[in-house]
Design goal:
Layout: H1 3-11, E1 22-23, E2 29-30, E3 39-40, H2 41-55, H3 62-65, H4 71-79, E4 90-92, H5 96-110, E5 116-120, H6 125-138, E6 144-148, E7 161-167, H7 179-188, E8 192-196, E9 215-218, E10 233-236, H8 280-290, H9 298-317, E11 326-327, E12 339-343, H10 347-356, E13 359-360, E14 362-364, E15 368-372, H11 380-395
Parallel strand pairs: 2-13, 5-6, 5-7, 7-8, 8-9
Antiparallel strand pairs: 1-3, 4-10, 9-10, 11-12, 12-15, 14-15
Helix pairs in contact: 2-8, 4-8, 5-6, 9-11
Subunit structure: Homodimer.
Binding site for pyridoxal 5'-phosphate: 96-97, 124-127, 167, 196, 199, 221, 251, 277
Enzyme class: hydrolase
């Protein structure tokens, strides 16, 4: 693959103009949007307005005048089409961890005769920690975590399992799980499914409703570009909403929060998953960031994501000096999210050297060098430049210099 072919790919890119909607630093190739999305320009102006005008001038009136009180619902409805959900099933609030606690409790209460939460050994740790914490709270008779390899999920779906907790895209390898198949198989065994969409929402088509999903969580700060610590979201299928209860019965989840009744009565809608007062500045930032998606075809995002990763792989293969980089992600693009993982004994040092050279990748223990592809603002020319710099770093052995081997540091 030559440079002229790369230029042609950029010229034919239907998403190329989207890059102009982001405030990207000069002389930086950003391949870590799967950890923290880049800053949309609209967010800068929205946050300034919320702080100086809405809060600064209108003060408490803004809860009504600027719909602060409705932000969790309004933002949730903007997320819904990105994850294949009809209205009334997505709410924006809290963090993935807190939302998982709520959904795990709800799912277990719907399956009271069973106690096993089945998940994968390489699931993102916070998902597993939340199950462990709930198990300590309730006792193993009511909640018990069982971990299996990703390839063994199907064989472990049995009558003891109450909840199947899965992340659609593996945070290390990028392996994409088959949501439709696994949800169907779980339902055939009477198992409810919670999907973590942290690495798939905004990166590929997610079809919660079409897959008959039960519950899902996701974050706002990766592919949705809502900013560091951006509020998360959760999904509860409409068919479950009247029957479920969640344990964090904060006032915003009350059926009539401003009646200020001393006795809690949860809403029978998705609003029951609200807890405390929403973080207005953070949620306003996410609200503005989601406007970037209004005219985006998610299938085009997926097509470009696959193309960016495939070009990256092909270019790596043209450099003999990169032969020690072992691809840990599948080469089958249909079974991969929007990232690539390579293992190398010096992955951390290589990552640090790349960052010094202006290529922002990231490291995941124990030896993974990870590159994320965010189609709304990543160009094919940047992929060419990134691999060229990667080859220079490895061939020159720049990464062996002491400053790149700081034990205990992460990116």
């Amino acid at each position: 693959m030559n440079f002229n072919e790369i230029v042609a790919l950029d010229k034919a890119d239907p998403l190329a103009n989207k890059r102009d909607e982001f405030d990207l630093p000069a002389d930086t190739i950003y391949l870590d949007g799967n950890s923290l999305g880049a800053l949309p320009k609209a967010v800068k102006s929205r946050v300034a307005e919320v702080v100086s005008q809405q809060w600064g001038s209108h003060l408490i009136r803004s809860w009504n005048d600027h719909q602060w009180i409705d932000l969790p619902t309004l933002v949730g409805e903007k997320v819904a089409p990105i994850i294949g959900a009809a209205k009334g099933q997505v709410i924006c609030c809290d963090s993935i961890s807190v939302n998982l606690f709520k959904l795990l409790s709800s799912a277990l209460s719907l399956n009271p005769e069973r106690n096993v939460v089945l998940s994968t050994k390489d699931n993102f740790p916070t998902d597993l920690y939340m199950v462990q914490g709930l198990s300590e709270l309730l006792g193993p008779d009511l909640c018990q975590l069982k971990l299996v390899a990703e390839q063994s999920i199907e064989q472990n779906l049995n009558d003891s399992v109450a909840v199947l907790l899965l992340t659609q895209v593996n945070f290390r390898t990028g392996q994409l799980l088959d949501m439709q198949k696994l949800t169907q198989l779980a339902h055939e065994k009477g198992i409810l499914v919670i999907w973590d969409l942290a690495h798939s929402a905004g990166a590929l088509p997610v079809e919660l409703d079409n897959c008959n999903a039960d519950f899902a969580v996701g974050c706002g700060y990766k592919y949705l570009n809502g900013g560091p610590g951006s509020p998360a979201f959760l999904y509860v299928a409409k068919r479950h909403q009247a029957a479920v209860k969640q344990p964090l019965s904060g006032w915003m989840g009350h059926a009539k929060p401003f009646a200020f009744d001393a006795i809690y009565q949860g809403a029978d809608t998705i609003n029951q998953y609200l807890c405390g007062t929403p973080s207005v500045i953070a949620m306003s930032a996410l609200d503005a960031a989601l406007d970037v998606w209004q005219d985006v075809d998610i299938s085009q995002v997926r097509e470009k994501s696959i193309a960016l990763a495939d070009v990256f792989i092909k270019l790596v293969q043209t450099h003999s000096c990169l032969s020690d980089l072992r691809l840990c992600s599948t080469e089958n693009s249909s079974q991969r999210g929007s990232q690539l993982a390579f293992s190398h004994t010096d992955a951390f040092a290589i990552c640090q050297a790349l960052i010094e050279k202006g290529v922002i990748a990231d490291f995941r223990a124990p030896n993974i060098l990870r590159f994320g592809f965010t189609p709304l603002y990543t160009s094919f020319e940047e992929i060419w430049q990134a691999v060229t710099i990667l080859a220079e770093v490895v061939k020159s052995q720049l990464y062996t210099q002491p400053r790149f081997n700081l034990a205990g540091k992460v990116t």
